[in-house]
Predict the structure.
Amino acid sequence: MGYCFGGTTALELARSGAEIIGAVSFHGDLSSPTPDDAKKFRGRVLALHGADDPFVPAAQVAAFEEEMRKAGIDWQLVKFGGAVHSFTIKAAGDDNSKGSAYNEKADLRSWEMYKEFLSEVFR
């Protein structure tokens, strides 16, 4: 799992075919230079995304969804309304117009979803 670049890294690790049971991305980049690599996924995916994140445009989100569908991955993408990039980082401030801002509801909800994901994959 990871936040921002770490979330991107978690997804790329899964795309590499590494033997992991799950990958979680908090406000990470969802794009892939090689979307066909998703066929190598061995585990589940949880992507937690700010619905208003200007750094991950709708076209990138749609491409991620298509990538997951084509590869037959057990995946979830959760979009948090009103949240932009860095929604879990208090130091990002509260001005969504800057593209990165903390969102308490998205932060708390995403953490609960992460814990549920872990509970499910380690069951």
Q: What stands out?
A: The chain has a mean pLDDT of 96. The radius of gyration is 14 Å. The longest strand covers residues 44-50. The helical segments are 5-15, 58-71, 104-121.
